[in-house]
Amino acid sequence: MLSVKFESRAEHADPHAESAVYTPLGSMCIHLSPEKAHLSTKTRGVISPLGEIIAHDVSFDPIVNVFDKSISTGIQRFIRIECPGVVDDDIEWEELPNGVKITINKKPPIEEHSVQPVEPIRQHHGVWEREFLFDHSDGRFELCEEEAKLEDGVLAIVLKKSLQPRKGKLQGKARARASYQA
Question: Which of 15, 33, 129, 172 could form a disulfide with 1 if both were Cys (CB 3.0 to 4.6 A apart)?
Fold first, then answer.
């Protein structure tokens, strides 16, 4: 359980104190139920020249573009993911019924605990995962594993669109049944 209470400091303000950039109005008290809650503060950020904390989100959230391209053999759907600093071993994929699931584990390029920063270190890392599922009205898409590549920090995944639905007849089972009954 979490409760937050604001306590005004207006009645305790010192009228002789010098005016500062910020005027304290009060304080907030956060009360937690010890067995059910855990509170932690953001430990990453940048301190501005005015002493303000500017949060820097370290989570890896790459730019993704999905588009279709007509080629001589049909239509291909491209998924392009910008992931600089990622190597082949950091990428996993799983084919889905009409799409693909991609997981990228981007490791931090700088071990912050082992260096002395001259300026704040800003880097993005972590595990990113997304399912690319396409509507059946768009057609049927199959992963072209041989065309997937990671080049210049961009992962390209290609899916081939099946233009014709698959058709067929079950011939072996019907003939086997007819000869068995005779």
Answer: 33
